[in-house]
Amino acid sequence: MKAVLQRLGQLVIVLFFVTAFTALLFSLLPGDLAEVNIPFGSDEQRAALREDLGLNEPLYVQYGKWLGDFVTGDFGSFYRQGNVTPVSDRVSDTFPVTLQLIMYAQILALSLAVPIGIFTARRAGSWADKATNTTAFGLLAIPGFVLALVLAYVVGVELGWVSPQGYTQFSEDPVEHFKSMALPAISIAVGQVATYMRLLRTDLVATLQQDFILMAKSKGITERRVLWRHALRPSSLTLITSAGLSMSALIGNALVLELIFNLDGIGRLLFEAINERQTTVVQSLVALIATAYVLMNFLVDFLYTILDPRIRRAS
Fold first, then answer.
1. How confident is the model at residue 226 (pLDDT cuts 50, 70, 90)?
2. How far apart are CA 192 and CA 246, in angstroms?
């Protein structure tokens, strides 16, 4: 219970500072919602719209009103040429797309990184280990958006294996759904594979030299059992930490890749809100992303206690 209250307190602090800083930065951008919605109107029309939307009020007043609405479940609305669309409706449509992209990328990255990390750890110092690590350094040097553009052109345009743009829901066509998500998921996962693999390899090499591993081997336990049952679990803590904390980076990558591959996700929604100077919408989306980030950290801490009994006893 104490840990839950601590996390709730951290969540409140994070949300306040992140959203307040976002509002401050947003106020420094040129233009406002009135200019975007009435680009060819008169100054009087823009002034009237600013008055209706409360854009003339001081920044702290606008932030206070948004904060009061947000804590009651009102995330604001998109205002476009007189049409008002609740943000909650847009989030319910776009959130599953972003969540699927992030989860596919994480599953793909971990599915590749764990066996590669184990393979290189068992052969530490060999030519295979050195070649794999050199390849990992090369993959880390490739920006995700660059890889995405190359894959979109080569695989999507030149080879025509999958469509380089668009999104198909799983319920409509499962095969086309995975095809539409394959390239963006791979673009995100490649860099994560290199990071996760190196983290797991480093920890696993150190764990395999511990006394309890040597004792297990001396009892005649097979190398496979020692590796998977005794060495892998304590060596996975850094990997799990990185996987949890990288969610924020994955969201950032998803924002760019959703634009490249024309996926209607949270990233694209945030991009539209920034372009259209939808201040309250941006703050609500940032707050939701920050909430997901804090909750992910809480999940990582919870997994710690499962993987390492020493942490559970200490707490």
1. confident
2. 9
pLDDT band at 278 (very low <50, low <70, confident <90, very high): confident
CA distance 166 to 177: 10
The pair of structure tokens assigned to 31 is 């233009």
- Of 26, 21, 15, 22, nearest to 275 by C-alpha is 26
Specify the range with the lowest mean pLDDT, choosing from 166-175, 208-217, 306-315.
306-315
Alpha carbon distance, N-terminus to C-terminus of the chain: 12
- What pLDDT is recorded for position 4? 66
The sign one gets for the Cα dihedral 44, 48, 51, 55 is: negative
Only one residue has tokens 């066509």, namely 173
Quickly tell me which residue has 């939701």 as its tokens: 288
CB 138 within 8 A of CB 130: no
- The burial of 5, by beta-carbon neighbours within 10 Å (0-12 exposed, 13-18 middle, 19 or more buried), is given as exposed
The token pair at 194 is 């290199």
Cβ atoms of 87 and 75 closer than 8 Å: yes
Beta bridge partners of 86: 77
Bridge-partner residues for 79, per DSSP?
A: 84
pLDDT surpassing 70 at residue 169: yes
For 66, half-sphere exposure in the C-beta direction (CA atoms, 13 angstrom radius) is 30
In whole angstroms, give the CA distance from residue 37 to residue 6: 43
Question: How far apart (Å, rounded) are the C-alpha atoms in residues 94 and 11?
Answer: 23
Q: Which of 116, 17, 50, 7 is nearest to 279 (CA)?
A: 50
pLDDT at 47 over 60: yes
Cβ atoms within 10 Å of 119's Cβ, excluding its own: 14
Q: What is the CA radius of gyration of the chain?
A: 24
Reported pTM: 0.80
